[in-house]
Structure formats: structure tokens, C-alpha cells
Amino acid sequence: MPLKNHSEKISKALKLFFPFLITITVYTSLSTVYLRPESVNTILSVKMHQVTDITTKITFEMKIDSFKHGALGLLLGSLTLNPWYTVFTVFTSVLIDLDHTPYFLGIPVPPRVSHSLFFLLLSTIIYQTMFKEGKLTVTWITSFTLHISLDNLRVPILSPFLLSPEPPQKLIPFLITAAYTANLYLGLKKLRKKKS
Ligand SMILES: [Zn+2]
């Protein structure tokens, strides 16, 4: 159904993006405390200036990396031919790296602590329960799959319970192809529906 006005659009955007931000914040915090119980005080007493200081630690290479996630996420999302899924894919493709925050705060945990199948599972259940929209859920899974593939699968995939091994890198071409194919399928399905 077309959205009638700006406030409806803003409310839909917040509904779409907020669960992701909350889930990644909670998952990252709990994983950090699980791995480093002594860090609980550091996390609870984080000051705003410490969070803004993190931006000064972002190197040029990391900015290029975020741009790459955003650009290839844009391409991935646009295959669905749905503007909401496209924005959602770009948003999640870039902001999954928010899980680097504890590492940047100096807590000795892996920087990609939420690049994990358990985070994928939890957020998938949350999105499917909240929106009951299979296509949105697929879009989230493909966004995650593309992101970790672009990170060369150098991710603690079972974090926080097991920090190694990393997934085999030979899976990268398969995962990237699967992500783009799934979104292309959603786009073609939409086109076919429009024509009939
Ligand atoms: Zn990443």
C-alpha cells in the first residue's frame, strides 16, 4: 500500500531501522560482557565523548571499507526493486560495523563481535516476528551474507561462544552469488506480479 504522507514514511523508517540498532547494540554489549565480564563497568559508564572519540580512530581504509559495504549493499538492495528494502540493505550493510565499538573503547574483544550466526538468527527472528514479511527477512539475511563475505569471512562466526575457527574463504564467491541471486529473484517476482 502506498504511504500517504511524510509522517507515515518516517514512522515506517523508524520501525524498520530501530530494531536493528537496538539488536546490534544489545547483542554487542552482551557478547562483550560474556567474553570480558570485567568490562561491564566500562560499558555501563561509557560517556558520550568516548563514543564520539571513536570517529577519530576510523582510518581511511575503514572509511573506504564502509563505502564499499554501502555501494555493494545499494546494488544488492536495488535488485529487489523495492526502495524500502534498498535503503534497509544499505543501512544494515554499513551499520553492522557498529559492533567495533567495544574494541575501539579498548576492551580486548574481537572488533567484529556481532558478525555472528547467532546475531543473524536473533535479528532474523525479531524481524520475522515484528513484520511477518518474508521478503524483508530475506533482504536482511542477504545483507548480512554480503557483508561478511566482503569482510573476507574474517569473522568470529560463532561469537561470542566460539571465536574460532573462521568460515573457509572458498565460500566467498558462493555466498556473494547466493545473496545477489536471492534479491534478483525477489525483484523478478515483483516484476512478474506487476505484469499479471
Ligand atoms: Zn564488517
Characterise this structure.
The protein has one domain (6-195). Helix 4 runs antiparallel to helix 8 and helix 5 runs parallel beside helix 8 (134-150). The chain has 196 residues and is mainly α. It is built from nine helices and no strands. It is 70% helix and 0% strand. It binds zinc ion (ZN). Residues 96-97, 112, 115, 147, 151 line the site of zinc ion.
Short description:
By secondary structure, the chain is mainly alpha-helical. The chain is built from nine helices and no strands.
Keywords:
mainly alpha, binds zinc ion, single chain, 196 residues
Task: Give average pLDDT, whole number.
Answer: 92
What is the beta-strand fraction? Answer: under 5%
Domains, number: 1
Instruction: Please report the total strand number as a whole number.
Output: 0
- Described by the principal axes of the CA atoms, the overall outline is globular
Structural class: mainly alpha
- Could you give the distance between the termini? 18 Å
How would you classify the quaternary structure? Answer: single chain
For the sheet with most strands, the description reads: none
- Low-pLDDT stretches: none
Q: What compounds sit in this structure?
A: zinc ion
Q: What string, H for helix and E for strand, traces the elements in order?
A: HHHHHHHHH
**Total count of helical runs of at least 4 residues:** 9
